[in-house]
């Protein structure tokens, strides 16, 4: 995690942190006192938060991503034949997950704030781990589809809760690298899922169960174990009572974190929950612009997650074992691109151009996959496609997080962002159709169209942000209702 702090001198500074504006009843220290930490002490506090928070939620997200996308590995390991996944049955199984996943996003985010991240996230992770184990014993395809609906219900609150939790601990221009590290750990699942699935396939015949069943059973057991460990390592929201931090930070350090976030964007105080206040951000058009970008991103990322091994097997002619293992290198490359663009975004306070760059990279990769004769070049196109699509996930999260204020608005926006991501998952589960095998050209066209929509939406938002900042500089406009120097990031 040391790389997170190489360019953060401007964030920490050498000046004293201003008085915290927390409500006196919730404040761990007297509101009149000054909290003083040297730059070195500040870095140590941030290092501690990174190690505890990012690694914990990142590992749990790694398991989450693996569990929702292991269908493609199971499909080529015998599930398609044993469950008779003819016609649209495989697409239906992938699609139904997102119905409950989208519907339960908003209430799950509110529940996380009310219950607390430690109990909420560990509980839902434990429950979907049990569902995963059950998927290894299904006899019919419709039973598997039903379990996927339940899986979507439990996973609905995980990603938006993590995005929301991370955004409450860090400043605006610390988020890019943190979101990148968080998602890179998730990418580790995508990179290693094929190799792990190939290893688990070798258990074929053990206890009279097919190798594809052991993929679900063993990964479900891993999920349950991670949930139990995560219960003891997850952290609360920073404005929660310090005695809930389990010795993670002391009272002065918690107050320091709250004070610096308050100084950065003045939204650390959580108002009592009101349905009207929670839904009011829905009137803000840019909220839906962020959601549309994320929807288009996940259309591509889920399409790759659900179908890449199948494309490598049927479209490019690799063997089952090679198709499982060749998924890993493109995702490893994507992790490198993701961190570099996250670092650039934080250092130079830029988001929109990086989203456009990654979208263009993805379009180039898709074109190489579909319209080049050389097998090596087509496979190299997978690298560009994976990198462009996946590197834009943390970029979009940072783009949104930098341009909104308020605790409940953050909760609502996290829910809408990931909810639309679920809609993108529905699209991603349908774009590559069995009748389009082996070229899958309509699916490639659909993914390219999604990237073009991202570019157009970023252009509209950045244009609005530019003129809004210009008006605010002239004193004609208060951005996000703020009376300070808060400005949009484009």
UniProtKB/TrEMBL annotation:
SUPFAM superfamilies: MFS general substrate transporter (SSF103473). It comes from Zasmidium cellare ATCC 36951. Residues 1-36 are annotated as: Disordered. The chain crosses the membrane at residues 53-76, 88-108, 120-138, 144-167, 179-200, 212-234, 287-312, 318-340, 352-372, 378-399, 411-431, 443-467. It comes from the Eukaryota. Its main location: membrane. It is a multi-pass membrane protein. The keyword Metal-binding does not apply. It is found in: Membrane. GO terms for molecular function: transmembrane transporter activity. Residues 53-471 form the Major facilitator superfamily (MFS) profile domain. This is Major facilitator superfamily (MFS) profile domain-containing protein. The keyword Transmembrane applies. Keywords: Membrane, Transmembrane, Transmembrane helix, Transport. Residues 1-29 have a biased composition (Basic and acidic residues). Gene3D superfamilies: MFS general substrate transporter like domains (1.20.1250.20). One of its GO terms (cellular component) is membrane. InterPro entries: MFS (IPR011701), MFS_dom (IPR020846), MFS_trans_sf (IPR036259).
